[in-house]
């Protein structure tokens, strides 16, 4: 299990790329250098301890939020295939400092989702995932029916985020939560 007090998930290893051990990573970060600048990186499968690897190189796929990276220790496609599903991590103490009211997307995970109903805030679900290949979308699991809905991550729909108190408020347009 990932200790979110120590680690921040910045990418998801999705597949091998080619036959020479290159790996495709879906980015959950705004900091491109995490995938392109050589140095130590950490990967983890959900139930294992983080493993240290040496990033040699990486580049962003044109028009995508994914990168192709090369680790020194991964020599071929078979080794790369074994890393599918691993998370790319950074230590929390190595996270760049953000300005006030800024946060890392992964900090939205497990936040309670509230909606204003009859002038009172009501919890309707929680953030269970992020979809960000083309647009940033929050996957929200509703309490009423366990259904998952996609909510665009835009200020008009999500006007308030309170990381410290672990909730966000949404103002969905009619029908969004019924899709």
Structure notes:
- With 179 residues, the protein is mainly beta.
- The protein folds into two domains: 7-94, Beta Barrel (Elongation Factor Tu (Ef-tu), domain 3); 105-178, PRC-barrel domain (SH3 type barrels, Roll), CATH 2.30.30.
- Helix content is 5%, strand content 45%.
- The chain contains two helices and twelve strands, in the order ββαβββαβββββββ.
- The strands form two sheets. It has a six-stranded antiparallel β-barrel.
- Binds ribosomal protein uS19.
- Its main location: cytoplasm.
- Pfam families: PRC_RimM, RimM.
- It is found in: Cytoplasm.
Biggest β-sheet: count, sense, barrel?
Answer: 6 strands, antiparallel, barrel
Q: What separation lies between the terminal Cα atoms?
A: 32 Å
Order of helices and strands: EEHEEEHEEEEEEE
- CATH architectural grouping of the largest domain: Beta Barrel
Tell me, what is the CATH class of the largest domain? Mainly Beta
| Overall geometric form | elongated
Major beta sheet, strand line-up: 1-2-5-4-3-6
CATH level 3 topology of the largest domain: Elongation Factor Tu (Ef-tu), domain 3
- The H-level CATH homologous superfamily of the largest domain, spelled out, is RimM
Considering DSSP H and I runs of 4 or more, what fraction of the residues is helical? under 10%
Radius of gyration: 18 Å
Q: Could you say how many structural domains there are in total? A: 2
């Amino acid at each position: 299990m990932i200790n979110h007090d120590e680690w921040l998930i910045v990418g998801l290893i999705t597949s091998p790329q080619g036959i020479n051990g290159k790996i495709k990573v879906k980015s959950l970060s705004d900091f491109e250098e995490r995938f392109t600048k050589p140095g130590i990186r950490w990967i983890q499968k959900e139930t294992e301890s983080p493993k240290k690897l040496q990033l040699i190189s990486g580049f962003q796929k044109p028009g995508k939020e994914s990168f192709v990276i090369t680790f020194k220790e991964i020599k071929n496609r078979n080794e790369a295939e074994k890393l599918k599903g691993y998370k790319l991590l950074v230590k929390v103490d190595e996270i760049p400092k953000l300005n006030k009211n800024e946060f890392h997307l992964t900090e939205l995970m497990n936040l309670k989702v509230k909606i204003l109903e009859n002038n009172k805030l009501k919890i309707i679900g929680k953030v269970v995932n992020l979809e960000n290949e083309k647009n940033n979308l929050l996957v929200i699991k509703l309490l009423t029916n366990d259904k998952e809905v996609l909510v665009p991550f835009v200020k008009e729909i999500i006007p308030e985020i309170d990381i410290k108190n672990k909730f966000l408020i949404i103002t969905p347009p009619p029908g969004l939560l019924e899709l």
